[in-house]
């Protein structure tokens, strides 16, 4: 018998039978057993056939055929294990079981062979040394330990020396600091003594001045008050205007007198009198008005005279005011009458800018003052240039050349005329000849370009700010008109829109008041709303007895709307969602077929539509019961129901009051149908229910008398209804008698 050897390689996926290699496309552990069974089966078949030639029908060939069939038809994958709990839990449990089985196999191996290695890493084994080697190792360790000890002692010693050194340095530095502090303390004490002396002298000086000026200050208390509010007190602004006149006198005439020959024996007394008057105004401003100015400290307005006076004396402005009042004019006696000694008076120019700010804050049209101020700047620049031109002409020689001042006519007017033509670059001037003249004229041209461009830009800003509102109105109106034209809006509607824009702007100076009020803080908006509308709100019957703060909150929710003549504010049957307060103009309650009947005219301060705010839509109470249209231009305040309900959430007591009053007002001002129904019920209650028709009469009359009975019903109701409504029992009794008498005739 020929033996067959079957080998299977799982990794290479091949089977070897008697050194004959068969390559498969499958790899299965059970395949080897199957192949052996197939081979034995084929061998048995061969023996049954009694075939002696083993090479003619080699079982290997048949087995290869079977293997080929298996290779062409791969085995189906094993079915997935059933899910017991869920897929994830089953996988975790199977993994745990697998690890437990692996651990069980390991323990079994341990039981069989107790020296079997474990999966853990074994600790390192200490090497075994010979006695000599061990002695050397011990000696080496001792030597290393001794070296480490010596190094540590040296390091400790070095560290100790460094600490001692630092300690000595710290002590020396401490001594130096103490000496330095002592020196500073001595110097500070000396300075304090000097400062105390200076402070005492200063306090003594001001105490003396206060004692001297106290009678004057007490007399002025009745005129200007103990203290002055610099922002709202009109008296202070009026005084600043006087100081501004004195400042302008010094600014304009000091420079003119310095450059032009206006000092002579006849004019000097006049100049001296004017100077003394200006100095007196400066002096009064310094001792009377400026020390009374209130100021803010830590958010508090300080109104105490002593504190306001001390605050002024500690400020830089007081220093500048003192310098302005220094009497350099006394040098006239030594050097002659020259206005240069009054140059320190120009340092009070800050008061002019303060006056400008205060005036703008109180003026309704502040741009007028801005334009005047800008023109003043322009004139002053021309004045300075005229002064320089006269000085240059005097330097070159009056009348020496055609370019300089000729010396004829008024020197100031001629030089000012030249300055105007030079700075504005008008032209037509005499040509300069010398280097000085050319340089001066070029400087004039460059200065004129710079100054006038700045002034023109400033003037443009002033005018633009003054007409910003008008520009916004015109742009809004033009945009609206363009939109209507593009969408082919009828001409009548366009005219009404233009009328609304024009009237709204003329009436209130803006299209939407909320744009201005939204920029203000809540306190300011509340104050404005209370001043305008609180009195009107308190007169409304619906809101009487409500919380005052609730009324204030309602005022902040009001919206202003302007209606044109003939515009319907509300129409009968509309859903009422707002109430209206007439701010200006009038409205009419109209009715009739074409709304030509005027029932009542409501004017400024009246209210309508308040009932609809509190009525719900269940019973139709929020429906408008009349037509209201504008009689002329009407400016109305509108309060929406949503805003009212948002406010009432925070005021439950007021909500109960409004609900109770709303029911009362609804009964008092309800529709006419409700009154008719109520009167009809009263009449039925007075006479009781109508008795039914007797059966005998119905049986006797049948269908013949049914028309008569119906006619009786109609006649009775027609005659009795007015009497019941008007509550006239005598007339009712007469009608009943008449009816009874005429009943047989009607029956006939």
Structural key phrases:
single chain, alpha+beta, Helix Hairpins, Jelly Rolls, three-stranded antiparallel sheet, 25 helices, extended, disordered N terminus, disordered C terminus, nucleotide-binding
Describe the model.
With 748 residues, the chain is an alpha+beta fold. Among the domains are: 225-362, no CATH class; 364-511, Helix Hairpins; 513-668, Jelly Rolls (Sandwich), CATH 2.60.120. The protein has 25 helices and eleven strands. Strands 6, 7, 8, 9, 10 and 11 form a six-stranded antiparallel beta sheet that branches. A three-stranded antiparallel beta sheet has the order 1-2-3, with helices on one face. A two-stranded antiparallel ribbon has the order 4-5. The longest helix has 94 residues, at 131-224. It is extended and about 160 Å long. 13% of the residues are buried. It holds the Pfam family cNMP_binding. InterPro entries: CNG_cation_channel, cNMP-bd_CS, cNMP-bd_dom, cNMP-bd_dom_sf, Ion_trans_dom, RmlC-like_jellyroll.
Could you say what the CATH architecture of the domain at 513-668 is?
Sandwich
Shape: extended
Number of helices: 25
Give the C-level CATH assignment of the domain at 513-668. Mainly Beta
| CATH topology tier name of the domain at 513-668 | Jelly Rolls
Organism: Sparus aurata
Catalytic activity: Na(+)(in) = Na(+)(out); K(+)(in) = K(+)(out)
Main location: membrane
Transmembrane segments: 236-258, 270-289, 371-392
């Amino acid at each position: 018998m020929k033996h067959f050897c079957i080998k299977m390689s799982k990794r290479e996926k091949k089977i070897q039978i008697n050194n004959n290699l068969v390559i498969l496309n499958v790899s299965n552990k059970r395949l080897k057993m199957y192949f052996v069974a197939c081979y034995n089966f084929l061998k048995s078949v061969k023996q049954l056939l009694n075939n002696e030639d083993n090479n003619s029908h080699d079982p290997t060939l048949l087995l290869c055929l079977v293997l080929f069939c298996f290779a062409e038809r791969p085995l189906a994958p094993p079915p997935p294990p059933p899910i017991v709990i869920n897929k994830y839990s089953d996988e975790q449990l199977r993994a745990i079981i697998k690890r437990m089985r692996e651990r069980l196999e390991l323990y079994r191996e341990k039981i069989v062979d107790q020296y079997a290695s474990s999966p853990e890493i074994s600790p390192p084994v200490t090497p075994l040394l010979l006695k000599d080697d061990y002695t050397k190792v011990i000696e080496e360790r001792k030597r290393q330990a001794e070296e480490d000890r010596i190094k540590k002692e040296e390091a400790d010693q070095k560290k100790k020396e460094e600490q001692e050194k630092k300690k000595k340095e710290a002590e020396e530095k401490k001594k130096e600091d103490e000496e330095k502090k002592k020196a500073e303390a001595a110097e500070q004490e000396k300075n304090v003594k000097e400062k105390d002396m200076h402070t005492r002298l200063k306090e003594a000086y001001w105490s003396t001045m206060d004692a001297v000026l106290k009678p004057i200050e007490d007399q002025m208390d009745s005129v200007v008050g103990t203290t002055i509010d610099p922002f709202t007190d009109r008296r202070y602004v009026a005084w600043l205007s006087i100081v501004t006149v004195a400042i302008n006198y010094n600014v304009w005439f000091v420079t003119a007198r310095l450059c032009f020959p206006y000092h002579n024996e006849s004019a000097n007394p006049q100049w001296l009198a004017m100077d003394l008057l200006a100095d007196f105004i400066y002096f009064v401003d310094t001792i009377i008005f400026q020390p009374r100015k209130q100021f803010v400290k830590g958010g508090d307005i300080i109104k105490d005279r002593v504190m306001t006076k001390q605050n002024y004396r500690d400020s830089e402005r007081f220093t500048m005011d003192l310098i302005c009042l220094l009497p350099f004019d006394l040098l006239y006696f030594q050097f002659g009458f020259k206005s240069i000694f009054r140059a320190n008076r120009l340092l009070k120019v800050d008061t002019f800018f303060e006056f400008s700010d205060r005036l703008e804050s109180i003026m309704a049209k502040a741009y007028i003052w801005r334009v005047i101020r800008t023109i003043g700047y322009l004139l002053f620049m021309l004045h300075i240039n005229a002064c320089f031109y006269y000085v240059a002409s005097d330097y070159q020689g009056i009348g020496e050349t055609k370019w300089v001042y000729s010396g004829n006519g008024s020197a100031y007017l001629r030089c000012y005329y030249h300055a105007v033509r030079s700075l504005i670059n008008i032209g037509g001037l005499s040509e300069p000849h010398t280097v000085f003249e050319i340089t001066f004229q070029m400087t004039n041209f460059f200065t004129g370009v710079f100054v006038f461009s700045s002034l023109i830009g400033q003037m443009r800003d002033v005018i633009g700010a003054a007409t910003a509102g008008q520009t916004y109105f015109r742009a809004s109106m033009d945009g609206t008109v363009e939109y209507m034209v593009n969408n082919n809006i009828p001409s009548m509607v366009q005219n009404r829109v233009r009328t609304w824009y024009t009237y709204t702007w003329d009436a209130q100076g803006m299209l939407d008041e909320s744009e201005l009020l939204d920029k203000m803080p809540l306190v300011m908006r509340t104050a404005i709303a209370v001043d305008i509308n609180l009195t009107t709100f308190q007169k409304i019957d619906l809101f009487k007895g409500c919380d005052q703060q609730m009324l204030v909150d309602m005022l902040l929710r009001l919206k202003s709307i302007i209606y044109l003549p003939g515009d319907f504010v509300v129409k009968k049957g509309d859903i009422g969602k707002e109430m209206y307060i007439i701010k200006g103009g009038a409205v009419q309650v109209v009715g009739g077929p074409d709304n030509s009947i005027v029932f009542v005219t409501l004017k400024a301060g009246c209210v309508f539509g308040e009932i609809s705010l509190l009525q719900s839509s269940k019973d139709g109470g929020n429906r408008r019961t009349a037509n209201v249209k504008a009689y002329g231009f009407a400016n109305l305040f509108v309060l929406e129901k949503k805003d009212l309900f948002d406010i009432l959430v925070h005021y439950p007591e007021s909500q109960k009051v409004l609900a109770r009053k709303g029911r009362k007002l609804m009964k008092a001002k309800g529709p006419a149908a409700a009154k008719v129904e109520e009167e009809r019920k009263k009449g039925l209650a007075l006479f009781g229910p109508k008795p039914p028709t007797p059966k005998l009469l119905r049986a006797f009359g049948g269908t013949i008398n049914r028309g008569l009975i119906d006619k009786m019903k109609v006649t009775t109701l027609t005659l009795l209804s007015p009497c019941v409504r008007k509550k006239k029992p005598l007339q009712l009794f007469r009608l009943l008698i008449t009816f009874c008498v005429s009943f047989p005739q009607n029956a006939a």
